[in-house]
Amino acid sequence: MNKQIQQNNPDAQFAQTTNEDEIDLRELFAVIWQDKWLIIAITAIFALGSVIYAINQPNIYKSEALLAPITEKQSGGLSALAGQFGGLASMAGINLGGGGIDKTKMAIEVMQSRQFTSQFIQNHKILPDLMAADKWNMSDNSITYNQDLYSLSSNTWVREVKAPFKPKPSMQEAYKEFIKIISVNKAKDTGMVTVSVEHLSPAVAQQWVTWLIEDINSVMKERDVVEANRSSEFLNKQIALTNVADIRSILYKLIEEQAKTIMFAEVRDEYVFKTIDPALVPEEKAGPKRALICVLGTLLGGMLAVMLVLIRYFIRKPA
């Protein structure tokens, strides 16, 4: 009879379900309270461990520079040539405008490429600072290296690795580490480019940013000069093969534009990026966030402790 009344009365069913839920919650709270000292102990262990971990983490310093992309305005004559003789110019590998590759975007991609990174590491001999740096000594601005990886006295790599890896890190390994500490971002609203590097040593971070800017300008300049020289050689060959005065005149104008490209490249050190705010040696650390590490470690310990207590309770609870 009571069951029939409950079936016909939805409010009574809801009240009974709510009452059961309250009983379950009270039961869970009772279990947690009963094992509160275990929860506190586990949480305290995690809190202490997170504090020790945070303290042992070395400071990371971040140096960054603000750059302005250098854009070249086309002359009226070159724009006219682009409309009439774009096909001929493209055969010579010459870009007369009208939807070519953005030089700024290309420079950013080149700066983060494997080839550029490998050359950068090898040219400046920064592999030990990248792969084996363990501590920065503020007193004498020196770097202490991990002796299990690199011996500074003999300038040799001593790390133990399995094949196909070798004691000396490969450029593929170095690239994976380097790409973690470098950041190149272009602002959508202003178009300005920010280049930043993070490292144990603030002086190293500042030096690498400066080198990166110098190298990317040099690499992009060299690419354009080589391309302009090849284009000029092609155009000179075409001039020798034709006797049509109008075509020869156009080819000479194209050669003139390539000569301008080479001239501008030779007189400008800041070829792609102009430094607006140069990199400085940072005085304040960028990381790690020790307080956040401690808070997250404590919260993680508390949650794991509560889960452990509840799992143990449900395992022991009779069916």
TrEMBL record:
One of its GO terms (cellular component) is plasma membrane. It is a multi-pass membrane protein. It is found in: Cell membrane. It holds the Pfam family GNVR. Residues 21-123 form the Polysaccharide chain length determinant N-terminal domain. Keywords: Cell membrane, Membrane, Transmembrane, Transmembrane helix. This is Chain length determinant protein. It comes from Shewanella violacea (strain JCM 10179 / CIP 106290 / LMG 19151 / DSS12).
